[in-house]
C-alpha cells in the first residue's frame, strides 16, 4: 500500500480544499444530487457537469432549468465547469457561473465527444493554443479576482510531438494568465475513454509546473487505493475521481480511512446502500420534481446496483423503473435483509463521459 503521509492538504488559489481526493465533472451525472451525496461521504470538493457557454448566457430562472445553477447548502466548495468555442461568449458564460455562486470556475479543454469536437469545443482547443489561451485570459479577466479559475485538459489531441508541444504551450499560457490550477487526464482526445491512462505523463507535467502551481490528475481511478497510487507515482497535488464515483460515493470515505492509516473499510452493507439510494432519490425529487425524478434516477440506481452481491438480478429490475413506488419495491425485494456488499470490479466501469 502506498503511504499517505506525504500528501498535503489541497489548495486551489485562495481556496482551502483540504483532502486531496475530489469528485470530477461528469457529463450527465455530476448534478446537484450526486455532488451532495459525494460531499456527505467525504469528497472535499466537487465539480458540476459541464455546461455550454451559449446555454449559460441564455439561461433563465425557469423551473425546468433552474437546477443547473443551483447550489445546495451542504456542497461548497463546488466548481462550475463550462465549455464553448468563442472567447468572448466563453467569458460571458464564466461570469454567469460566478454570479450563481460557484466557488471555482473550471474551463473544459478535455471533452473528447465527437459532436463537441465538431463544434470546436472541449478537447478541440488543444489543437489551437492561441484561441485556447485567449479563452483562459478572458475568463480570468471577467471572473472576480477572489474566485479561482482552473482548466481541465487531456494530454493532447494525439501522441504526436506537435500535440505535446501545444499542450505545454497552453499549460504555460494558463499559468501566465493567472489560473490557479489544472486537471490533466492521462489519455489523449483521440483515445477518448479507450486504453490506459498514462500516469507517467502526469509526472512530467508536475515536474514542468513545479510546486507553485496546483496540478490534479485524472484517469483510471476506480478505488481508494488507485487515488493514492496516482499521487504517489506522479507527484500531483490531488486527484479527481470520475467514473469510479458513480453509484459509489463510498470511495471517498474509504480514501479518508486509508489516509488516516486505518484499514480499508468493508464494502457498504445492503442496508447502507439502500439508505444512500433513498437519500439520493429524495435529493433528485427535490431538484427535478416528482414527475422527472424516477427516470433521471434510474441511471444512478443501475450504478448503485453494482455493489449488490446479486447485481445482475438487481440491475435487471432497475432498468424498468418508472416510478418511485417501483423503486421502493426493488429496495424491499433486494435490500430488506442486511448482508455484505461487494467492491465494484474495475472491468465494469465504462461509458460515462468524463468531461
Please describe what this structure looks like.
The chain is of the alpha/beta class and 355 residues long. The chain has two domains: 10-259, TIM Barrel (Alpha-Beta Barrel); 270-335, Non-ribosomal Peptide Synthetase Peptidyl Carrier Protein, Chain A (Orthogonal Bundle), CATH 1.10.1200. It is 41% helix and 14% strand. It has helices at residues 32-40, 53-58, 87-100, 114-118, 129-142, 161-176, 199-209, 224-234, 250-259, 270-288, 293-304, 311-318, 324-335; strands at residues 10-12, 15-18, 21-23, 26-27, 46-47, 51-52, 78-83, 104-109, 149-154, 181-185, 214-218, 238-241, 353-354. Strands 3, 5, 6, 7, 8, 9, 10, 11 and 12 form a nine-stranded parallel β-sheet that branches. Strand 6, helix 2 and strand 7 form a beta-alpha-beta unit. Helix 8 crosses helix 9.
Annotate the secondary structure layout.
Blueprint: E1 10-12, E2 15-18, E3 21-23, E4 26-27, H1 32-40, E5 46-47, E6 51-52, H2 53-58, E7 78-83, H3 87-100, E8 104-109, H4 114-118, H5 129-142, E9 149-154, H6 161-176, E10 181-185, H7 199-209, E11 214-218, H8 224-234, E12 238-241, H9 250-259, H10 270-288, H11 293-304, H12 311-318, H13 324-335, E13 353-354
Helix pairs in contact: 1-10, 3-5, 5-6, 8-9, 10-11
| Fourth-tier CATH superfamily name of the largest domain | Aldolase class I
Helix fraction, binned, reads 40-55%
The share of residues in extended strands comes to 5-15%
How many separate domains make up the residues? Answer: 2
| Cα radius of gyration in angstroms | 20 Å
Residue stretches low in confidence (pLDDT < 50, at least 5 long) are none
- Ends apart, CA distance between termini: 30 Å
Oligomerization state: single chain
Strand tally is 13
CATH hierarchy: architecture of the largest domain: Alpha-Beta Barrel
Average pLDDT across residues? 92
Order of helices and strands: EEEEHEEHEHEHHEHEHEHEHHHHHE
Main beta sheet strand tally, sense and closure: 9 strands, parallel
| CATH class assignment of the largest domain | Alpha Beta
Structural class: alpha/beta
